[in-house]
């Protein structure tokens, strides 16, 4: 078949292959009302500068490979759906702060370097379980992320608008610029992040983590006394990621690397394929099989061992370390049955993958008062099940994938501050899935550090 992948490819067939997905079923794509406008926008996107560079994606692939071997641990976190309005310096800074603070705690708990990755600078498209939403007898298209339409429940807002793809690109560029400035400009200084964590621990609600907090403090004082060069710890590598959902956008940002002649998706360092679009013969898997970035696939409870093995073969035919991450997201009640056979068979029959746990998407419930929420205790329980299963299988737990924000929202139930059903109404802001707030995110890091620290 024209464009089908073969091992030795000419530059022309590599480029043609990047459009092969157009012949395949592509679920979750918007119904754009005006094809001419879409084509115009895509032509503009195709000549924009890359947001990330091939060499950076290669560096992340090496870090993901280290995580697959137990030499690093990945923390991937951010909003379910970013919004253009929230791409402000304050909101982005607090999200980065939250991830850096969690990373310091996890560095100690795991005794490993933490690979820091935001669900940031591109997470503007959402898969939905239904094409339309009905309210008071009115039926409109569902909200598919701000790269597609707006959230307000009006026909104008919900009509997909291709110009939003360009806005998503510019918003991603602005966000990435801030990420680079914050993580390279001294803001990420280990001593400063540690001081922020001391602020968190001054709240008596977190007394149960005092021992580990004191141990971390002691470790930093020891480093200081031993003459560690803190100047070298002022900057951190921070990678961007999002779900590769809108294939027109992802294709327009896929570029040929001038060093190697290989295609890279330059919209983010790491892309993942969602649970709803991971069909083996589907368009999403095909396009991502052809780019060199490190990539992930979400695996929900319906994933069979055979699905996982065939995905591994298709997405990582050369068995390249760090290339493929499986992100399991099955729920606290299923993880302990789901994971052991999968770990055993993938380990036996496929090239090494990096295993990550998304403890969010299998634990979504509707609260008594009608909010889409998640219990902090379920989230932690899935993480614990993930670590236990790896422990028993002798495989490596490579990282966590978390929906979080740096703000003081009230979207998930529980945590030591005990957000209850009534409390959810106080500040429920997410446009799609509920996120851990700043405090809950740090508490999670301390709880996970306790699980890891033996
Ligand atoms: C998400 O990550 O927001 C998401 C939709 O996840 P999943 O594909 O695992 O359902
Ligand atoms: Mn989500």
TrEMBL record:
Keyword Glycosyltransferase: no
Pathway the protein acts in: Metabolic intermediate biosynthesis; chorismate biosynthesis; chorismate from D-erythrose 4-phosphate and phosphoenolpyruvate: step 1/7
Binding site residues for phosphoenolpyruvate: 119, 275-276, 298, 329
SUPFAM superfamilies: Aldolase
Keyword Signal attached: no
Keywords for this protein: Amino-acid biosynthesis, Aromatic amino acid biosynthesis, Cadmium, Cobalt, Manganese, Transferase
Major enzyme class: transferase
Reactions performed catalytically: D-erythrose 4-phosphate + phosphoenolpyruvate + H2O = 7-phospho-2-dehydro-3-deoxy-D-arabino-heptonate + phosphate
Cofactor note: Binds 1 divalent cation per subunit. The enzyme is active with manganese, cobalt or cadmium ions.
GO BP field: amino acid biosynthetic process; aromatic amino acid family biosynthetic process; chorismate biosynthetic process
InterPro entries, A to Z: Aldolase_TIM, DAHP_synth_2
List of residues binding Mn(2+): 80, 361, 403, 433
Entry cofactors: Mn(2+); Co(2+); Cd(2+)
MF annotations from Gene Ontology: 3-deoxy-7-phosphoheptulonate synthase activity
The EC number(s) this enzyme carries: 2.5.1.54
Family, per entry: Belongs to the class-II DAHP synthase family.
Protein's name according to its UniProt entry: Phospho-2-dehydro-3-deoxyheptonate aldolase
């Amino acid at each position: 078949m024209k464009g089908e992948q073969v091992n030795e490819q000419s530059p022309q067939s590599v480029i043609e292959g990047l459009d092969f997905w157009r012949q395949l079923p592509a679920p979750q794509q918007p119904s754009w009302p005006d094809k001419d406008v879409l084509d115009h926008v895509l032509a503009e996107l195709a000549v924009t500068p890359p947001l990330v560079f091939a060499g950076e994606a290669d560096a992340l692939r090496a870090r993901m490979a280290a995580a697959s071997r137990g030499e690093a641990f990945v923390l991937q976190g951010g909003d379910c759906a970013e919004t253009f309005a929230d791409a402000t310096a304050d909101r982005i800074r607090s999200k980065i702060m939250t991830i850096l603070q969690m990373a310091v705690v996890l560095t100690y708990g795991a005794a490993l370097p933490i690979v820091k990755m935001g669900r940031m600078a591109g997470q503007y498209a959402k898969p939905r379980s239904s094409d339309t939403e009905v309210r008071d007898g009115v039926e409109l298209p569902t909200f598919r992320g701000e790269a597609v339409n707006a959230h307000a429940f009006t026909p104008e807002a919900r009509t997909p608008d291709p110009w939003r793809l360009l806005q998503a690109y510019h918003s991603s560029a602005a966000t990435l610029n801030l990420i680079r400035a914050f993580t390279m400009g001294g803001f990420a200084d280990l001593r400063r992040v540690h001081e922020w964590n001391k602020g968190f621990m001054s709240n008596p609600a977190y007394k149960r983590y005092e021992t580990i907090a004191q141990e971390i403090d002691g470790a930093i004082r020891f480093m200081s006394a031993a003459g560690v060069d803190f100047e070298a710890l002022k900057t951190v590598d921070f990678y961007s990621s999002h779900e590769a959902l809108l294939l027109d956008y992802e294709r327009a940002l896929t570029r040929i690397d001038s060093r190697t002649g290989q295609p890279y998706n330059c919209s983010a360092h790491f892309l993942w394929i969602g649970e709803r679009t991971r069909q083996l013969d589907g368009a999403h898997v095909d396009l991502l099989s052809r780019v060199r970035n490190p990539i992930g696939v979400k695996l929900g409870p319906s994933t069979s061992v055979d699905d996982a093995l065939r995905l591994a073969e298709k997405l990582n035919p050369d068995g390249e370390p760090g290339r493929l991450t499986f992100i399991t997201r099955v729920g606290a009640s299923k993880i302990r049955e789901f994971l052991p056979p999968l770990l055993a068979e993938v380990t036996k029959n496929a090239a090494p993958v990096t295993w990550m746990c998304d403890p969010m998407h299998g634990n979504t419930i509707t609260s008594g008062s009608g909010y889409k929420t998640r219990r902090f205790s379920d989230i932690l329980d899935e993480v614990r099940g993930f670590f236990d299963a790896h422990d028993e299988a002798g495989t490596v737990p490579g990282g966590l994938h978390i929906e979080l924000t740096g703000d003081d929202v009230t979207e998930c139930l529980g945590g030591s501050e005990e957000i209850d059903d009534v409390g959810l109404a106080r500040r429920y802001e997410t446009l799609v899935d509920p996120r851990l707030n700043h405090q809950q995110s740090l508490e999670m890091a301390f709880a996970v550090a306790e699980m890891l620290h033996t």
